[in-house]
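FORM 7B: Structural annotation worksheet

SECTION A. Query
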Amino acid sequence: MKTVLLFFLLGCSPFVRAQTYLDSLWNVWSNPEYHDTLRLWAMHKYCWDKFLFTRPDSTEYYAKLQYNMAAEKKLPMHMANGLNNQGVSWAVRGNFPKSLELFYQGLEIHEQSGNREGIASSYNNISNVYNYMGELHKSLDALNIALENYEALGDKDGMSAVYNNMGHITGDLNDSDGQLAYYRKSLKIKKDLKDKNGMATSISSIGNTYLSRGEYDKALTNFEKAVVLEKEQNNQRALSHSYTNMGIVYKNIGDYDKALDSYQLALEIYEQTGDKNGMAQCISNQGSIYQILGDHQKALKFFNQSYEMNVEMGLKKGVARNLNNMGISYSEMGEYDKALKNYEEALEIKEQLGIKKEIANTYNSIGVVLNKQQKFEEAIGYFKLASQFFESISNKKGGCIAYINHAVALKNQADSAMSKGNNLLASGYLDQSLEYGEKALNCASAIGANKESSDASMVLYYSHLTKGNMKEAAKQIRSVLDVRKKELEIAYSILSEKEKELYLKTMEDDFWAFTSFTSVAHQELPQLKGELYDNVIQNKGMLLKSSTAMRRSILNSGDSLLITEFNNWISLKKRIVKKYSDGESIDSLEHLSNELEKDLLAKSTEFSSIQKIQKLSWKTIRNELKEGEAAIEFTRYMHPESVWNQNQKEFVYAALIIQKGDKYPEFVPLFKEKDLENILGDFPGNNLNYIEGIYGTQSESRTELYNLIWKPLEPQLANVQSVFISPDGLLHKISFSALASEQNVFLCDNYHIEIQSSTAMATNTSSYQLEEGTVISLFGGIDYNTEESGREIWNYLEGTKSEIERIAKLLEKGDHEIKFLSENDATEEEFKKVASESNLLHIATHGFFFAEVDPNAEVVESEQGDLSFRGGNSIAARSFVNSRNPLMRSGLVFAGANDVWTKKEVSKEAEDGVLTAQEVANIDMQNTDLVVLSACETGLGDIKGSEGVYGLQRSFKMAGVKHLIMSLWQVPDKETSEFMGTFYKYLSRSNDIQLAFNKTQKEMRKKYDPYYWAAFVLLE
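SECTION B. Predicted structure
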């Protein structure tokens, strides 16, 4: 990828001068008393520094004045400079043939006068024009001549610039190693010359190489180094380019907020320096982010704004780029005629300019739209033209893309023929699709283009699948996943958690495709079921695994410096949470936090490696299971028909089941997600009527959930008594124990159920021992008011006081250290103090989870009869309610919490009494064996793909807690107290958490409807 800055003339100023400087240049030019050469140099600088990047048409006018005077005075070097300036003005405006004509005229003058410096400069400029026209070999030939002349002159500055430009061309020829070598040669010279501006340019170019290779961390590191140098030298134009490049990195890893922020920083510099060309490009870049986000109307506003600026400046290349972008948005909106109109206008301009690469890209774009319109023959014609143009300029990557599009069009043509019953014709199209898919794959493999290799393999997969060639289809989809897994392995060693989350999102479709394939091919290829199970347990909760691995790895390393750095990082994260809750900006601190995290990654090899996760296998689980046990991995994926046609996304669920002695896991298709959504409904609260409408009562059972989720599994579970279950998607909201098969018969009556984040943990369960000296902290009977409290948002829960008193009595028989915290002593500050010191934590209080980031939303009051619920009945307009971070929208409340929900300002010195999940994640709880959240909705949160629920349960697991009891809905105070007392009774007798939990559920189940006992879930 090329840097944005062109090296049309060596030694030109990169700064926009102050107006007084420009005035002085004009005065020199206008005054005939000055020497002719001085006047001409003043005009030369005036053209560059006042107009070139703001009004290139004016540059041409003044450059002609420069040339005419030089010709009159017979000064050949200045004549050539005048031609050169005119040539640059045409190049900036995108008229490359005209630009070349002027550069060659200037070259002829330099050659006649024997001016080696001028010859080198001319060839450098000629090279740039050929480069933009896509004539890469001609561009490289010109650079070699320029280099010879600079070497003869001993001009290291010139040599460095040529090496940098050679790097651009070599990269376009798909030789990234050679590209890096040229950039490093350029950088070495700049370091020897102590030229910090030049160093920044070369470092930025190196960053662009890493960006094109997908090594985003290295790219970002180099751009940040460039920024430091550019700020130091006050090189505003180069700084704006670096911010733009950083925006591209963030765009590629899916961090669109940071991409927009980076583009905005660049835009502000362009506005300050009056660089309208840069402004137009930056505005277009911002539009491209909204295009990715699917907000095409907003994207079009940005593209139109950029378009109008480019038209005003006469920048045809920019106009063509805007038209192309608008075409993409119209295409995505289904307005194909408008898309084609824009593409055709863009194509006309590109043909005038003679930019072969851009012409080929537009051919591709037009073909894609025609393909969507099912005008397959026309589309294929354009793809053929595109591939021919790419071949003519040795652009192999572009050729790969054209071949891929060609193969896709043929696959669609085959589908159309099949839908009309013409299978023979369809077979012919599929054979052709396979032919072009293989061409694309061979081409991509030859140049090491991973993305294009994956895309080619994907179209080959679909074509083989349609032909019924399951083995070949399996080969191709496996190759796609192999690339993805390799990318993950690299990414996990260099990206922060936020960046990993975004990066994982980019590869979801490929893993869904494999699951979809397994759903249709597992009978013919049963080994796929094992591979799928491995994919599920390797990917499920991968971020959570890496987060807990970091804490464990670092704190157990014995490396005092590493531990100190980790603690500093945790302290910084605490500051971020505090500042956010106080309504302050946290952007700079978040950036610093990400950088510290990456530094920890580099120093903690165990944390940075995911090889242990990648080696997890279903066979290990199978071998450890006992007779009568089964492990069930639920998985959510895209319906096979939706994977190819993503305009109609439909998600479905399936179960993978393992029992001891199985040759392969069993694959059981289940239901469409919309069917589960219909049962759960969209009621905004979780009151008694809502839960009973889903799970029923003892006297009136509701079997819909059972029939949907569990009944299809029963044939595979005939001899099973114990099941290890790992939910996915909306199943995280389901209380499996309360699924009713018939009147007053629930799942917990027939099975011993254990819920796990992944069944990879099924064989690692261990009994919890209440040993002597166990530190137990009990929170309950909390006073949420202070003398200054206004309206009572969180009411006092009488049952929580008796609950922890009862627990204390049950546990005081052993030799344990029991901390009893209630009333005003049960503060957030005290919790943070005792949490890391406690082996067992019981928290009986209000809990909350806000599903929508909507400060104007209202929570429906959840009261029924004389029941008092452990959940809030109001939304406070606080930043943690409105946060985009789900870990800031779920939490627990402690003493004095009503203040923060009623006041506009809170003391920044003390804790506010609201403990968010984000704060929990920052506590070291490695020594905590059990946390019981005797509160409402503590098991809820935002559900994010394979990572599961983002809420309190995730944060406590991140903190290191081994066992967690939480709730799925608002729980009644009195019955919850009884549930917890019963649980601790059995725990004190058996020391087995799972056994005690199951016995408690069964005892409560005999007395009460599901609403009163089924909300609580034990997670290991």
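SECTION C. Observations
The longest helix spans residues 423-447. Confidence is low (pLDDT under 50) at residues 1-18, 853-879.

SECTION D. Sign-off
Analyst initials: ____
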